[in-house]
User: What shape does this take?
Amino acid sequence: MKANLSRSPWTQLAFLSLWPGLLLAGAPDSAVNLSACKNGWPSCDRSQLTLAGVTEVALAEHARNVRSCRNGAKSCEPSKLTEAEAIAVAVAQYDRNVSNCRDGISACERSRLTASDAREVALAERQRQISNCKDGIGRCDDSTLTGAQVAEVASGQRRRMVSDCKAGLGSCDHSSLTPLEVSEVTLEEHQRNVSKCSYGWDGCERSKLTEGEAAAVEAAVHRRNMSDCSDGRDTCDYSLLSRSEAYALAAAEHTRNHTACLSGRGYCDRSRLTPSEAAAILPPPRPIAQ
Assistant: This one.
């Protein structure tokens, strides 16, 4: 005789105990929905908000609109601002326009400037123009500069040219340098060449090294190559190793190989073991036949 589970009191009791959980699983998460509505996200379902939630969302929307207006965003709705907020927004927008004009940002409305602010902006523009001419950055219009400013710009351009020559930036016109500047630039070029040779960088001209520098560079190259070989880097050039260095590397590799064979970890070449080393190591296990 089959049992009727639908009429079993235990089955009905279990179903009733799960009923609240099933209801909650199907209902939207009120906290998540409230957050979505306060942030203005598309997933917001206003019909699920409580009366308190509606108030919270309205306050959040108002605060977001105030921020949008203060930042000059297109989403700003001025009609929703209070009188105090509208005044604060107007002040913030004016100050932002003055800052834009002073910094040379395109979003500058000169017609909104007061006479005093316009003079301050004009002074900032002139200083920026002088700086651009001196630093070789941006647009430079010499015709707008005074005689003193032209001299200041020329001095700045010369300092930049000498600095670029010393740093090896761009092409350097040695003929435009003073004898002292030529001496300084030549020294910097020589030191830069020594560094390139010492570190193995492109552009090294060994023919320009002194006898002592060439010896120091050779020693540096030798040390770097020995380090590369010791660490197993692909930049190792075995032909540069001395006999003692090659022997030391071979001994270190023999020790590594012996350790690998003993421990069963790492690359092991049993053919390179001595007879006594090989005898002390158990043969590898044979594969189990399938």
Q: What stands out?
A: The first helix runs from residue 9 to 26. The CA atoms of residues 134 and 157 lie 5 Å apart. Residues 28-113 form one domain. The mean pLDDT is 83.
